[in-house]
Please model this.
Amino acid sequence: MNSVPDSPYMTFTRDKWAALRKSEPLTLTEEDLSELKGINEEISIDDVEEIYLPLSRLLSYYVDATTSRQTATMKFLGEENKKVPFIISIAGSVSVGKSTTARVMQALLSRQKEHNNVALITTDGFLYPNAILEEKGIMLKKGFPESYDIHGLLQFVMDIKSGKPEVTAPVYSHLTYDIVKNEQEVIKQPDILIIEGLNVLQSGMDYPQSKPRVFVSDFVNFSIYVDADEELLEEWYISRFMKFRQGAFTDPKSYFHSFAQLPENQAEKMAKTAWREINRKNLRKNILPTRERASLIIHKTKNHTVDYVKLRR
Model:
């Protein structure tokens, strides 16, 4: 009699996962990659070849299988086949590199002939505007479940899944740290939609007040959690903050412009406090508990190097 697996995941070392690339062609150059990576996020062509190409190959199979199933359902119902986008979600802590992972996956998947219309959106656009956060007294909880217009995000995902020709989403500015007034992003029936954000794997227990009956995760076809040890996340957060201090924060329009004027030791102390009092608390309470809901977990070690991948059985 077969024994019951002690984990719902199969674990692959980097080498074993890399071998699953098979003949998937490399379609990104070093120049492409430099434009895709975020501040303080290391990623190399080796990472693309050994981690993200096998993943794009796997996702291609999932997209094809889902499309075939949808076609079969419409045939059974005797209805015209309607295009329904395949939704991928990417979750993980602040500073773990979700955005870079999302952009690389969008680039790779959009270069596949079968489904080259790949849209990417972040849940930042569904944060409440700062004025509302201040009114609610939760400005220091930006990124926590209660800081999002979860009903707006849910409606957006449902509209995408229903096959609407055009769906709009609010736009968030990391420079002004707020929603951009009178600006929207338009999504037009993509083959694949990638949704990146802290909250894409959260469910009912994460929204104690005014919680919806269904959740974003209910409409996702494949979910990815980008993982790393807490000590590294803190290190990456502080390092990124200090780089922003020398770059984006120097812009007078930046919400954090005053931080650029602080002495280095004070700025580092402030970054450490922000991590421990806000981001670490959110990670422990709301983000990390969602990890085991993911279809796939990408685990990073030093220098953002992926050391293993876990795929749900």
